Amino acid sequence: MQLRVLGELQVRAGDRPLDLGPTKQRLVLAALAVDAGRAVPVEALIDRVWDTAPPTEARGVLHTYLTRIRRVLAGAGSGDGPAVTVTRRSGGYLLEATPDQVDLLRLGKLRDEAATLPPRDPRRAQMLRDAVELWTGEPLDGLPGSWASRVREGLRQELLGVLLDWADSDLEQGRSGHVADRLRRALERDPLAEPLALRLIRALHLNGRRAEALDQFTRTRMLLADELGVDPGPELQALHREILRGQLPVPAGPPRAEPVPVEASPAGGEALPPPTAPGCQLPADLPDHVGCESEMSLALTVLGEPQKSTKALPPMIVSGPGGVGKTSFTLRLAHLLRAAYPDGQIFVSLDGQGDDPGHALNRVLRALGVADLHGLPTLADKLSQYRSALSRRRLLIVVDGATSAEQVRPLTPGAPGVALIVSSRSRLTTIPGACHLELPLLRREESIILLGRIVGAEKVRAEREAVDGLVDMCEGLPLALRIVGARLAARPHRRVARLTERIRDERGRLDEMEADGLAVRASIAIGYEALDPAAARAFRLLGFLGGPDFAEWVVAALTGEGVDRAEELLEQLIDARLVVVMENPAGRYVRYRMHDLVRLYACERAVEEETTAALHAAVGRALAAATQLSGRHGEPSPYALAPLYRQAPDAMDAQWRPASTDPDPVRPDWIDVEAPFLIAAVERAAALGLDVAACALADALVVALFATGSDFTGWGRTHSAALEAARAAGNRVAEAVVECGIALLRYREDRFAEALVHYPAAVALFDAAGHVHGAAAARNGFGTVLRELGRHREAVPLLTAAADTLDRLGDENGAAHARYGLGYCHRELGDDEPAVDWLTQANDRYRRLGHWRGEALTTRGIGLVHRARGDLDEAERWCARAHRLAVEHGDEYTACYTVQALAKIWLRSDRAELAGGPLASSLAICRQRRDRFGVALISRTIGELQLAVGDLDAALETLTGAHAAWRELGHDLGQARTLRDIGAVQARRGDQGATHRAWELASATFAALGTREQAEVEQWHRHWGCGCAAGLGAPDGLAATRG
Q1: Which residues bind DNA (predicted)?
Q2: What integer pLDDT is reported at residue 516 of this predicted model?
């Protein structure tokens, strides 16, 4: 087993590299490996892996990574020697290994042993040569973070010191040719390193290549002047003078056999002919290329003026998912750069080729006119010939369809004036010094422009609506747009709408996206077929589940794995460009998504390769996990529900839950971020006939997401789908629960008449199924709607029965809400003592439960009883306490109702000036929340305020609008109370006829509903100075109301 850090971090079992897992896990291994043989404290490990921003669960995640690293090392084996192990030491962890197993340990051992030998000892030269061979690339290549960067630089300097010692030793032994080739490669990585340049120049001269030595000095001097503004150091200048004056001795005779002069045959045969100018070998330009303007501008800036550059140009890596237009972009860029590279433009396509690093190099050498590659038997020989061919030329090399960095790394130019452009699905992040361009999908307007260039702008304008639909389904993927464009262009008579209609059917969409050898399906298949079996299965299951963006826990649940393993699988899917990471400016959550066409392909593969039972089980696991995680959110609803996922967990058969060792995916705003996925998941499960899973998650979302928000659309979508699934399966309990959820939705939407249909239906279903708890909860909700409408006499029996049953079943929250409803009803009926008793009981229970919103509602309710009694000081004390609860918890919506209660008290205590601003703000919030009840209630209160300050015209207008709002809600009590206030305005205006008509209608409603206002009619005319009320025949009463 070999553990390597002097290049890309690797663990190799024989010739086979092992999978080291996600980046953070690799960082943990690197952090231990660079200190192999020494214990690394836990805190130091955390700092090395996460820099200054470790997650709160860093120790737990670190433990998980260490466990998996141990598993990797154990699986690598140890041959005949001791195993490489990670063991716990006091306060930290220790990686135990021998120098033969870790390249960094071997480097140190060779360096130390060489230092003990005389300079001319051949053994010293061999030890240093072996040490240099351990340097395979950038140390810890590709690992991010400040710690890795610092260690990388330290190792680079250490390796440089070993390289210089080796060069001195080998030059003493007369091996100047090999030294020159190795130092040239090192100097390409670090062109300003004078010690390297000094030894390279000496090696070239000693190898008989005096002209190259002098040219290298000139280039080094120019670089130092341009980059640092300094001259070469005294030692380098002295060497230059010695070479010019012939004072540096050159070995007699021809160079040793081991070096290969640039233009000489390595086999010792005839000299290779000088390379020819390749001319332009680019495929035809694509003038209809659209989009990626900023990326094109950057590429032209970097590569557009090679004649001005004194150092090698950075390789340009163009990456992106299949079909995004990498080849199109690369060719367009290459044609725009042709004039800047007059010595030729070479194009090499690697699609379908393996990872052989010599393959692309062979193609380029042939393009440069090197016909006899047999004369270059080794990769080193070819590289030497390649670099010689590039010298003093301005060449453009385009490599299309690379799959790995190994394919193109040999082509990285070391000479100024040579540009390398590579397109790849992979990001090729290990190419040193590269400039990376990640191509985005096209924006909507760019997609329309591209389609117009293919089919004609006139056709696009003529059928813009159909074109918009077509563009939406292509989702910005240029390949898909080119295919549908080609199909339309091939049949100019065909209407765009016809093709749009055919593609709209998801079942045949990928079949429709084929034309003239182009196929979206084939493009996606390239990435899919390269996946390992576990990642391929995760891909299929994600496609089958569908939905919008998702998080790691979804993959964990679908596959039945842990979240850490899910992260590994996602990294594979990201590398294959089948899944993308969404932009996440806040950095709180990582979200992933599939392009819609990729999702369809994944779903196809799922149906073809998985059994129906396996697919349904995977979706069931995902829905069970979603239900469990959603259950951690929200508060106990102040509206009585019968949650299926809590009532019947066995029926859910939840096969996956977040393990205690997994990072917890749940944070306070988790439910809001996940909402689109969760809603779509309910619909998908329902469509598959998974009735229990769909209904359980739909029900969990009522408390977690819907009940305290205003996403009525999502609420309706989940419950419509779940209800249909429950009915199709004959699952009466699930149907009843979903009926309760729909009834609550209608209540929250102020669609009271519909709520009065759904709650009785739920009661009947629960009763028929013998589900006592559900029936009590449904009666609680039924009574809630009736009391909200002012039908308190009908509500009291329902709420009383619910309270008794819920008490018996131990449902504290449901019983508390039933008591709140009973207190509400008795207050409105004028039964103040029972009202206070019920409300106090509810208040106490809510406080015990920690349900602050319920506590605020009941506290406000007690205040309203005191206000109805005329005890305004006590009323204000209770209502102010309720308002503080809402404000302290940041609930501006509940605060609207506490403000309204306080405003009524201020009006009655001659402090109207306090009410205007708070009421206006509360009205705006209710409108924003689409709370029609709140809008009507607060509008009426504002009308009362305007009446109190004498603005009668405004009061009449406001109250008339409030009355219309109550009428639209079908709320008789609200209408009656507003008519009473309108009558008061008319009394002030002197219109006794209008007053009488308003009060007569109001009085009749109060009498019918039995509310306390029926006893207050006589007081109205005395308070407002109108004699018409005397004829209404009502008994004396107190001028105080609920509203």
Answers
A1: 1-97
A2: 59
Chain-centroid distance, C-alpha 5: 31
Q: Cα(917)–Cα(30) distance, rounded to whole angstroms? A: 62
Inter-axis angle of helices 612-630 and 533-545, nearest 10: 70
Quick one: DSSP state of residue 1032?
G
Strand segments, DSSP code E, in 463-604 are 514-515, 518-519, 580-581, 592-593
Token representation of residue 499: 């093709």
- One-letter identity of residue 721: A
Structure tokens at 199: 């030894």
Query: Which tens digits make up the pLDDT trace of 816-866?
Result: 999 999 999 999 999 999 999 999 999 999 999 888 989 999 999 999 999
Of the candidates 870, 929, 872, the one whose C-alpha atom is nearest the C-alpha of residue 897 is: 929
What tens digit of pLDDT does each residue of 172-182 get?
877 777 788 88
Enter the tokens of residue 230: 């300094």
> Please, what sign has the CA dihedral across residues 302, 305, 311, 313?
positive
Q: Are 193 and 205 in contact (CB under 8 A)?
A: no
**Which element (helix H / strand E) includes 40?**
strand 40-41
Cα separation of 862 and 486, whole Å?
72
Which one is the CATH code of 293-438: 3.30.750.24, 3.60.60.20, 3.10.20.30, 3.40.50.300?
3.40.50.300
pLDDT of residue 517: 60
Instruction: Count the Cβ atoms, other than its own, within 10 Å of residue 14.
Output: 10
DSSP string of 88-119?
EETTEEEEE--TTTBHHHHHHHHHHHHHTS-T
Which burial class, exposed, middle or buried, applies to 664 when counting CB atoms under 10 A from its CB (0-12, 13-18, 19+)?
A: middle
Token digits of residue 185: 């490669």
Cβ neighbour number for residue 392 with a 10 Å cutoff: 9
Across the chain, mean pLDDT equals 84
Digit-coded pLDDT (tens) for 400-435: 888 888 888 888 887 788 889 999 888 888 888 889
Helix ranges (DSSP H) in 325-435? 326-337, 357-367, 379-390, 405-408
Task: Please state, in angstroms and rounded to a whole number, the distance separating the CA atoms of residues 254 and 203.
Answer: 14
Rounded Cα–Cα distance for residues 565 and 676 (Å): 24
**Residue 956 to residue 987: CA distance in whole angstroms:** 11
Non-local CB neighbours of 739 within 8 Å, separated by 6+ positions: 723, 758, 759, 761, 762, 765, 778
| Residue among 262, 274, 153 nearest 215 (CA) | 262
Domain spanning 931-1043, CATH class? mainly alpha
For the chain, which residues make up each domain, given as ranges? 293-438, 444-516, 931-1043
- Burial tier of 816 (Cβ tally within 10 Å: 0-12, 13-18, 19+): buried
**Helix, strand, coil abundance in the chain, percent, nearest 5:** 65, 5, 30
Name the token pair of 496.
Answer: 């765009």
pLDDT value of position 74: 82
Of the candidates 765, 771, 777, the one whose C-alpha atom is nearest the C-alpha of residue 807 is 777
Same fold across 293-438 and 931-1043: no
Positive/negative CA dihedral, 867, 871, 876, 878: negative
Label residue 77 left, alpha or beta by phi (over 0 means left) and psi (-120 to 50 means alpha). Answer: left
The model's pLDDT over 338-374, given as tens digits with 9 standing for 90+, comes to 888 888 888 888 865 556 667 788 888 887 877 666 6
* Sign, CA torsion 814/816/820/822: positive
- Supply the Cα-derived Rg of the chain in whole angstroms: 39
Separation CA 829–CA 786 (nearest Å): 13
Q: Which of 212, 181, 183, 179 is nearest to 197 (CA)?
A: 183
Q: CA nearest 594: which of 501, 503, 677?
A: 677
Q: Which two tokens stand for residue 333?
A: 């860029």
Q: What's the rounded Cα separation, in Å, for the pair 571 and 523? A: 20
Q: What is the DSSP letter of 432?
A: T
Q: Is a pLDDT exceeding 50 seen at residue 336? A: yes
